[in-house]
Amino acid sequence: MIEIYTVPVTPFLQNCRIIVCKASNQAAIVDPGGDKEKIIAKLTALEVKVEKIILTHGHLDHVGATMDLKQHYNIPVVGPHRDEQFWFDALPEQAKMFGFNYLDPFLPDEWLVDGEQVTVGSVSFKVFHCPGHTPGHVVFYEPNTNVVLVGDVLFKGSIGRTDFPRGDANQLVSSIKQKLFTLPDETSVLSGHGDNTTIGHEKASNPFLSGRFG
Ligand SMILES: [Zn+2]
Ligand SMILES: [Zn+2]
Predict the structure, then answer these.
(1) Beta-carbon contacts of residue 181 (< 8 Å; ≥ 6 apart)
(2) CA of 182 to the centre of ligand 1 (A)
(3) How do residues 147-178 score in pLDDT, each as one tens digit?
(4) Which ligand sits nearest to residue 16's alpha carbon?
(5) Which of 72, 121, 129, 185 has its CA 20 to 30 A from that of 204?
(6) What are phi and psi of 58, to 5 degrees?
(7) Ligand nearest the Cα atom of residue 61
(8) What pTM was computed for the model?
(9) How many angstroms does the Cα of residue 23 sit away from the middle of ligand 2?
């Protein structure tokens, strides 16, 4: 069993998530984009043992507090896929682009590949490589709770931007149709921004995927 908590961070209201394995009380931080004090306060209140940081992709609003939290808890950083490296190398430029404070480039301790498992306590998440918004974007699916953390791949009624360097709209739609839409309709979709949705709801009504907008 898992419990997932949401901490909105940065001016972009990025949904940093805290996954807690109920059996072991171990926790992972997913996409700590900023506001490290807010994230630490939540983890302290939960009284969990923080085990790792997991990243969906290398955009600054998803990774900005990673190194501070890594040092604070002395934990590894896992993901995304290695095709994302140029976004990590470009963190100083991203800070300028997004109007954030300067951030040194860093790399995760471990890259992930499609089909791999990432554990939080005794719970396993399956990794899907879903390029398009960024080339190394990954999502994390947990089949027992039936939840998928999708970062900026899919939103309620929308999909991720593809106008960044190495973004690819066709690739993004393929990632969604060939990977996310193979999951059960009732799967909860937790996006990097905005409200939660379900796979079935987006299959039925997402205008960017139903063909209504060419
Ligand atoms: Zn993004
Ligand atoms: Zn984002």
Answers:
(1) 199, 203
(2) 23
(3) 999 999 999 999 999 999 999 999 999 999 99
(4) 2
(5) 129
(6) -95, 15
(7) 2
(8) 0.97
(9) 31
pLDDT, tens digit, for every residue of 97-130? 888 889 999 999 999 999 999 999 999 999 999 9
State in Å: Cα 74 to ligand 1 middle: 26
Q: Where along the chain do its domains lie?
A: 2-205
Predicted pLDDT of residue 87: 98
Per CATH, which fold does 2-205 belong to? Answer: Metallo-beta-lactamase; Chain A (3.60.15)
Return residues with CB closer than 5 A to ligand 1 (ion).
Answer: 59, 152
What 3 state SS string does 15-54 have? EEEEEEECCCCEEEEECCCCCHHHHHHHHHHHCCEEEEEE
Distance 152 CA to ligand 1 centre (A): 5
Nearest ligand, CA of residue 59?
Answer: 1
